[in-house]
Amino acid sequence: MTATVSASAALALGDDALVLSHRLGEWAGHAPVLEEEVALANIALDLLGQARVLLSMAGDEDELAYLREERAFRNLQLVEQPGGDFAHTIARQLYFSTYQHLLYADLAAGDGPFAPLAAKAVKEVAYHRDHAEQWTLRLGDGTDVSHERMRLACAELWRFTGEMFQPVEGLDADWAGMEQAWLESIGAVLGRATLSVPEGPRTGAWSAGAGRQGLHTESFGRMLAEMQHLHRSHPGASW
Amino acid sequence: MTNTDWPLWEVFVRSRRGLSHTHAGSLHAPDAEFALRNARDLYTRRGEGVSIWVVPAAAITASSPDEKDPFFEPSADKPYRHPTFYEIPEGVKHL
Amino acid sequence: MATAAAHRTAATSAYGAQDTADTAAYERAFDAAVAADERIEPRDWMPDAYRATLVRQIAQHAHSEIIGMQPEANWITRAPSLRRKAILMAKVQDEAGHGLYLYSAAETLGTGRDELLDKLHSGRQKYSSIFNYPTLTWADVGAIGWLVDGAAITNQVPLCRCSYGPYARAMVRVCKEESFHQRQGYELLLALSKGTPEQHAMAQDAVNRWWWPSLMMFGPPDDESQHSAQSMAWKIKRHSNDELRQRFVDICVPQAESLGLTLPDPDLRWNEERGHHDFGAIDWTEFWEVLKGNGPCNEQRITQRRRAHDEGAWVREAAAAYAAKRSGATGPGGTATGPGGTEGAQA
């Protein structure tokens, strides 16, 4: 594989990290316990760091983050899903970090342009995945209330998980193999957490590959409006 | 005490290889796994450590300040335990 | 949680009934240690009032850190560049960390974090009034870093030598990290001040709004400060409110000049004779009003804190229940807080 960076691949990975980092940043000051403020911020900072490297491979990081319209973002719909309770955040983290870990491990093993970034990020993501697993076990196998909340969150986000394994242009990865490994891993964690694997469809007429093609869910526009408004209000200014 | 009150853990961090773990502080966690992870996030986020121990605070037995004298004073009058107690003629090396 | 009592029992039980005579001896030992600039450690005997003063001060300090997350977190989702966003997230995270260090220090005195949070949520304990002001523009993030964190550092550096060991050690850690906070704030304001006219105006407006509340952070004038004298005698506090305030003003004046911003005080000028800057009268009515709960954000800050705590209860319960199932033992928190934890072990 050549070392030429595919801009669309850099955007896909970079936007995932950027958008999820933003969503996690929304927890600041709202976490269920102080120790978790620190943990969630650590994860958000790792992701933001990845996003900055990846976006810089595709252009100017701030121009790309702040001046693109909604339809130009290439992130998965999963990562843009708004707030919800802590169970939603953990379910989203579990689904995404398991995927990201598989993908980065794959990329790190190759010699493509993303290998150096992936080699560093895979260690960060291993920790994110561990954090999500630990919480999934506790919420799933904690109290009746937490079990029900976690069950609901896993089910609600399930339909956004098929999209993760749509091949990304410019990324040479074993998508089918990854999907298999992902399903096994998620099934094992949910099983240990006394939760069952959700049954609904993992892809739909709308959600399959949608984010990667710039089709997003409604709340995403509002997220961007908030994120971009200050930057856009002062064209050309430096900060 | 409500059941949301997580126990207290003491955290010991080895700042680099070759040094012993030293007490860094404490934190709350529901169990040992989370105590370790919380300690990692809280006490090593600026690269302060390469290894962490967590110990339930309740598991530590401490000497009492009231027993400070019987515990520690008797060792103060035994200077012959220290190398500087001994006079060695000048010029003798490797001692 | 019976830990504060446990402390005292531990100190007295070995000596049974000869309490009064022993207390006098303990008190002499305590006074001598403070006078000799030695540190008091958790399991040492200490006067009840010393313990109470420390718990109050450390708790207020810890509360300030976690309430202080809110005005800045208000801008995380709107930070105008990815670099600034990373810096701000790391800073707000540090504040949670500082809160944790400080709650730990308070815990060595036998008061659990739950109890302290409860007092914060019910308004029985305070946090720094400065966080009852709103962050209206991005420049406020810079002004908080430069002025509020700057004032905090001026207050806190002497606390690294506070007579109570765990508090002093927590403050060493906090101060090390705070200097990043102050510098990032200054740098942020500098970028605005040297930026477009709109950005410059934004920076000046923020400094105008934060300057006076920052000066109030040092507390009421010395002659009106109810706790000062005793705290100085105990070496919990090392300098008076007015002394620290003056030091802060003297530090800020040249920094403001380098920023290209003015401080909103027409009476501010160098006094050759005193070797210090004179500055205008502080509006203490405003200070007392905000302290009483009538500041712009008192209600909002406490409501958000309480909501986060309440909405997080099911999460904390779940983790405790899971741990209990695993250990099969006495149940969550059954082995909770020994008196003071190992800080005690190191005494």
The quaternary state of the protein chains shown equals heterotrimer
CATH architecture of chain A: Up-down Bundle
Query: Which consecutive residue ranges of chain B, at least 5 long each, have pLDDT under 50?
Result: none
CATH class of chain A, please? Mainly Alpha
First-last Cα distance of chain B: 60 Å
Strand content of chain A: under 5%
Q: What value does the Rg of chain A take, in angstroms?
A: 17 Å
* Largest sheet geometry of chain B: 3 strands, antiparallel
| Terminal CA distance of chain A | 38 Å
Mean pLDDT of chain B: 87
Contiguous uncertain segments of 5+ residues of chain A: none
Envelope shape of chain A: globular
Number of helices of chain A: 9
Find the count of extended strands of chain A (DSSP E, 2+ residues).
0
> Treating each run of at least 4 consecutive H or I residues as one helix, how many helices of chain B?
2
Query: Mind telling me the CATH superfamily name of chain A?
Result: Ferritin, core subunit, four-helix bundle
What does the overall shape of chain B look like? elongated
Strand line-up across the major sheet of chain B? 2-1-3
Mean pLDDT of chain A, rounded to whole units?
A: 94
Furnish the topology, listing elements before pairings:
The complex is a heterotrimer of chains A (239), B (95) and C (347).
Chain A: H1 7-25, H2 34-58, H3 61-66, H4 77-80, H5 86-109, H6 115-140, H7 144-158, H8 175-192, H9 218-233
Helix pairs in contact in A: 1-2, 2-6, 5-6, 5-7, 5-8, 6-7
Chain B: E1 8-14, E2 22-28, H1 32-43, E3 51-56, H2 68-72
Antiparallel strand pairs in B: 1-2, 1-3
Chain C: H1 3-13, H2 19-35, H3 48-67, H4 69-73, H5 82-107, H6 113-121, H7 139-156, H8 165-193, H9 197-216, H10 228-233, H11 241-259, E1 269-271, E2 276-278, H12 284-294, H13 298-311, H14 313-327, H15 341-345
Helix pairs in contact in C: 3-5, 5-8, 7-8, 7-9, 7-11, 8-9
Commentary on this structure:
The complex is a heterotrimer of chains A (239), B (95) and C (347). Chain A is mainly α and 239 residues long. Chain A is 64% helix and 0% strand. In chain A, helix 2 (34-58) runs antiparallel to helix 6 (115-140) and helix 5 (86-109) packs across helix 7. The longest helix of chain A has 26 residues, at 115-140. Chain A is globular and about 55 Å long. The model of chain A has no long low-confidence stretch (mean pLDDT 94). Chain B has 95 residues and is an alpha+beta fold. Chain B is 18% helix and 21% strand. Chain B is built from two helices and three strands. In chain B, strands 2-1-3 form a three-stranded antiparallel sheet, covered by helices on one side. The longest helix of chain B is centred in the middle third of the chain and has 12 residues, at 32-43. The radius of gyration of chain B is 21 Å and the shape is elongated. The longest helix of chain C has 29 residues, at 165-193. Chain C is globular. Mean pLDDT of chain C is 88; it is low at 1-16 and 330-347. At the A-C interface, helix 1, helix 2, helix 3, helix 6 and helix 7 of A face helix 4, helix 5, helix 8, helix 13 and helix 14 of C.
